Amino acid sequence: MEKIEKKIITNFENVKYDIYTKFGDLWELDGSFERHIEKRITLGHIDDRDDYIVKTLDCLANSDNFIFAEHKNSWDNICYNKSKSWAVIFNENGKIMTSYKIKIGSKSFFQAQIAIKAKIKKGITDEKFRRYFNRLRS
Fold first, then answer.
1. Which of these, 107, 103, 130, lies nearest to 8 by C-alpha position?
2. Got the DSSP string for 6-58?
3. Which has the higher per-residue pLDDT, 133 or 109?
4. Confidence at 40, pLDDT banded by 50, 70, 90
5. 35: closest CA among 91, 99, 106?
6. Per-domain residue ranges for the chain?
7. Residue 1: pLDDT band with limits 50, 70, 90
Protein backbone atom coordinates (compact mmCIF):
# COMPACT_ATOMS: atom_id res chain seq x y z
CA MET A 1 0.00 0.00 0.00
CA GLU A 2 2.89 2.33 0.67
CA LYS A 3 3.63 2.61 -3.06
CA ILE A 4 0.13 3.72 -3.97
CA GLU A 5 0.01 6.18 -1.06
CA LYS A 6 3.19 7.77 -2.41
CA LYS A 7 1.67 7.97 -5.90
CA ILE A 8 -1.49 9.57 -4.53
CA ILE A 9 0.50 12.16 -2.58
CA THR A 10 2.78 12.85 -5.56
CA ASN A 11 -0.27 13.55 -7.73
CA PHE A 12 -1.68 15.93 -5.10
CA GLU A 13 1.72 17.64 -4.73
CA ASN A 14 1.49 18.61 -8.39
CA VAL A 15 -1.69 20.64 -7.78
CA LYS A 16 -1.54 21.59 -4.09
CA TYR A 17 -0.93 25.31 -4.66
CA ASP A 18 -4.00 25.61 -6.86
CA ILE A 19 -6.08 22.64 -5.73
CA TYR A 20 -9.49 24.20 -6.29
CA THR A 21 -8.84 24.96 -9.96
CA LYS A 22 -6.58 21.98 -10.71
CA PHE A 23 -8.52 19.25 -8.85
CA GLY A 24 -9.73 17.78 -12.15
CA ASP A 25 -6.09 17.01 -13.04
CA LEU A 26 -6.09 14.37 -10.27
CA TRP A 27 -8.68 12.29 -12.09
CA GLU A 28 -8.01 9.19 -14.14
CA LEU A 29 -10.05 10.30 -17.14
CA ASP A 30 -10.27 13.77 -18.65
CA GLY A 31 -13.70 15.26 -18.09
CA SER A 32 -14.81 12.68 -15.53
CA PHE A 33 -14.38 15.13 -12.64
CA GLU A 34 -17.00 17.49 -14.05
CA ARG A 35 -19.40 14.58 -14.71
CA HIS A 36 -18.97 13.42 -11.12
CA ILE A 37 -19.71 16.93 -9.83
CA GLU A 38 -22.96 17.08 -11.82
CA LYS A 39 -24.00 13.61 -10.65
CA ARG A 40 -23.30 14.32 -6.95
CA ILE A 41 -25.20 17.65 -7.09
CA THR A 42 -28.16 15.91 -8.75
CA LEU A 43 -28.13 13.23 -6.04
CA GLY A 44 -28.03 15.93 -3.35
CA HIS A 45 -24.70 14.69 -1.94
CA ILE A 46 -22.91 18.01 -2.44
CA ASP A 47 -23.76 21.68 -2.82
CA ASP A 48 -21.17 22.56 -5.46
CA ARG A 49 -17.69 21.84 -6.85
CA ASP A 50 -15.87 23.21 -3.79
CA ASP A 51 -18.04 21.13 -1.45
CA TYR A 52 -17.06 18.01 -3.44
CA ILE A 53 -13.37 18.84 -3.15
CA VAL A 54 -13.68 19.50 0.59
CA LYS A 55 -15.53 16.21 1.17
CA THR A 56 -12.91 14.30 -0.82
CA LEU A 57 -10.04 15.90 1.12
CA ASP A 58 -11.85 15.36 4.43
CA CYS A 59 -12.32 11.70 3.58
CA LEU A 60 -8.61 11.26 2.91
CA ALA A 61 -7.62 13.20 6.03
CA ASN A 62 -9.96 11.06 8.14
CA SER A 63 -9.56 7.76 6.32
CA ASP A 64 -9.49 4.95 8.83
CA ASN A 65 -8.68 2.05 6.54
CA PHE A 66 -7.97 1.06 2.97
CA ILE A 67 -8.76 -1.82 0.69
CA PHE A 68 -6.51 -2.64 -2.24
CA ALA A 69 -8.29 -4.80 -4.83
CA GLU A 70 -5.85 -6.66 -7.05
CA HIS A 71 -7.20 -7.99 -10.33
CA LYS A 72 -5.89 -10.37 -12.97
CA ASN A 73 -4.99 -7.41 -15.19
CA SER A 74 -2.83 -5.08 -13.12
CA TRP A 75 -4.26 -1.95 -14.73
CA ASP A 76 -7.55 -2.80 -13.00
CA ASN A 77 -6.03 -2.61 -9.50
CA ILE A 78 -7.80 -0.07 -7.35
CA CYS A 79 -7.49 1.37 -3.88
CA TYR A 80 -10.43 2.35 -1.70
CA ASN A 81 -10.15 4.78 1.21
CA LYS A 82 -13.12 5.65 3.34
CA SER A 83 -14.13 7.70 6.31
CA LYS A 84 -17.51 7.48 8.06
CA SER A 85 -19.71 8.60 5.20
CA TRP A 86 -17.53 9.27 2.15
CA ALA A 87 -15.23 7.15 -0.03
CA VAL A 88 -12.52 7.80 -2.61
CA ILE A 89 -11.32 5.22 -5.13
CA PHE A 90 -7.92 5.51 -6.81
CA ASN A 91 -6.39 3.51 -9.63
CA GLU A 92 -2.99 1.90 -9.12
CA ASN A 93 -1.31 5.06 -10.43
CA GLY A 94 -2.82 7.16 -7.65
CA LYS A 95 -5.37 8.91 -9.90
CA ILE A 96 -8.91 9.41 -8.61
CA MET A 97 -11.54 7.24 -10.24
CA THR A 98 -14.44 8.45 -8.11
CA SER A 99 -15.31 10.07 -4.81
CA TYR A 100 -18.79 9.56 -3.37
CA LYS A 101 -21.17 9.45 -0.43
CA ILE A 102 -21.52 5.96 1.03
CA LYS A 103 -25.14 4.84 0.87
CA ILE A 104 -26.36 2.99 3.93
CA GLY A 105 -27.50 -0.49 3.00
CA SER A 106 -25.72 -0.61 -0.35
CA LYS A 107 -23.24 -3.34 -1.31
CA SER A 108 -19.85 -2.55 0.17
CA PHE A 109 -16.75 -1.99 -1.93
CA PHE A 110 -15.29 -5.15 -0.37
CA GLN A 111 -18.32 -7.25 -1.33
CA ALA A 112 -18.36 -5.85 -4.87
CA GLN A 113 -14.67 -6.61 -5.42
CA ILE A 114 -14.88 -10.13 -3.95
CA ALA A 115 -17.82 -10.83 -6.28
CA ILE A 116 -15.57 -10.14 -9.29
CA LYS A 117 -12.76 -12.30 -7.91
CA ALA A 118 -10.35 -9.56 -6.78
CA LYS A 119 -7.55 -10.44 -4.40
CA ILE A 120 -8.09 -8.15 -1.41
CA LYS A 121 -5.54 -6.52 0.87
CA LYS A 122 -6.86 -4.55 3.84
CA GLY A 123 -5.04 -2.22 6.15
CA ILE A 124 -5.07 0.81 8.37
CA THR A 125 -4.45 4.12 6.62
CA ASP A 126 -0.96 5.44 7.32
CA GLU A 127 -0.82 8.35 9.79
CA LYS A 128 1.54 10.32 7.51
CA PHE A 129 -1.04 9.99 4.71
CA ARG A 130 -3.80 11.40 6.93
CA ARG A 131 -1.58 14.22 8.21
CA TYR A 132 -0.69 15.19 4.63
CA PHE A 133 -4.36 15.60 3.72
CA ASN A 134 -5.11 17.37 6.97
CA ARG A 135 -2.48 19.99 6.09
CA LEU A 136 -3.66 20.18 2.48
CA ARG A 137 -7.24 21.02 3.37
CA SER A 138 -6.31 23.91 5.67
1. 130
2. HHHHHHHHTTGGGHHHHGGGGBSSTTHHHHHHHHHHHHTS-SSHHHHHHHHHH
3. 133
4. very high
5. 99
6. 2-137
7. low
